[in-house]
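FIELD: query
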Amino acid sequence: MFSMLPADYRHFIHWTWPQFEPYYKTLNERSLSADNVTAWLADWSHISRMVQETYSRLHVATTLNTADAEAEKRYLTFIGEIYPQVEAAEQKLKQKLLGSGLEPAGFEIPLRNMRAEAALFREANLPLLVENQKRGSAYNKIIGAQTVQWDGQELTLQQIRPIAQHPDRAVRERAWRLASDRWLADRAAINELWTKTVPLRKQIALNAGCADYREYRWREMLRFDYTPADCETFQAAIEEVAVPAANRIYARAKQRLGVSSVRPWDCDVDRDPLSYPTLRPFENITDLMEKSEEIFQHVDPQLGEYFAIMRREGLLDLDNRKGKAPGGYCTDFPVAQRPFIFMNSVGVRGDVRTMLHESGHAFHVFETNHLPYIQQLQVTMEFAEVASMSMELLAAPYLSQKFGGFYTEQEAARDRVEHLERIILFWPYMAVVDAFQQWAHTQPDGIDPAACDAKWTELQQRFMPGVDWSGLETEMMTGWQRKQHIHRAPFYYVEYGLAQLGAVQVWRNALKDQAMSLTNYRQALSLGGTRSLPELYEAAGVKFAFDSNTLRVAVELIKSVIAQ
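FIELD: result
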């Protein structure tokens, strides 16, 4: 029965629940023993891979064109009519395996995850979870429609980014204000969506027996190895170590730019814009792909081949266009055993960084293809982001044209300094986002947009005092509206800060021994979700940490390389 399942998504992407259901029913009815559990898990993985690939491809279609009504209809039909049925059926299989007492080899962590998921599952939450996903799609739709007029040309907010990096400060300010005004035009719509979303999330938590949505998400995101208190420790470490370092970077920027204070439109400009031309690393998407592949070949030939496969098989959608959802991501197609990278490239240096980052996620997919069960592929983001952020740093030495990359030697040095500075600048911003989310979902005021504005202002002033927002109070306080994770993937952001600390440690090891660091990196990736978070970090040769001492060592390394 299972051996006859299609291997090509085009043969199952339009399946309805009655076509999936017999396979789940058969699995639930089969007896389980030590002799047949591996075959049973293989069959379960097979049908689950098909469901996951269907979801991934339908979701990708909605992000490629947010105005595609048919794609949106197919996606919403899947998550509204099929996904809840699948979730209920998967829950029965989890209970069946847990009830058997069997512990297959290599399944210790997946079993731990299943116990947590089974304990959290509530049938009453299935329609609410679907509605929560729809709220994320509604946010996407608002943002995907945002365009501005620049000198008679309609541009998306992504396409105006290169203008926002213009050497002329007046031009930068004009572009920044134009984009900000467009965001503010949607302020009421995002506020309205937020006031509906927060109570929905709270109800999901209450249904699951959780005190608040933070507790629910902590359990849903399988955060076994750290607590909200650890996040507060990390925030304090950032305030102690990273904020002063960031302030020094802003102070240097003031001198560099010859200005009295760093304004928001100065935060994304190249170093010494009056002395050097703005970096334009590639001419078109083909150029971006060719140079990226060359760089990955230098980092590791196998990684280069992985990227070549993605190019050959059309697994990259990189250009920005009207109607495309914001941001960038890497998802996976489990049946095809392939990743897919989505970007909004407009020819700026940040696009190179995004390409390296999302490729790290893609390499993670390739490295785990040997694992037999889909449950073993469930890697928490605290380590998944180590894969991507490490790749940004591991590839950095090969970005110059000497290695087939994007920059002259001088430009490569500029880019590397900017990248390292941005790592330091990121930690304080991450702390703002994480602290805001923890507040918003644990306090009664979290539903009130005005209270959200006030809290964001407080956090921005605490962690990012080096940027001058005077006269721009409305733009500053609404920053939480512009952070898509808050609206589409709640509580998913501290992972970036933790993983960045892990990635700097991977890079530190590579500075000492590149070959050994790459070996450890790929070995850790290949473990998928079969080890605990601290064990995965250890396999990569680094420490999973929140403390100020570990952060201080990382910041000092970054500062020393910047000085070099």
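FIELD: remark
Residues 2-105 form one domain.
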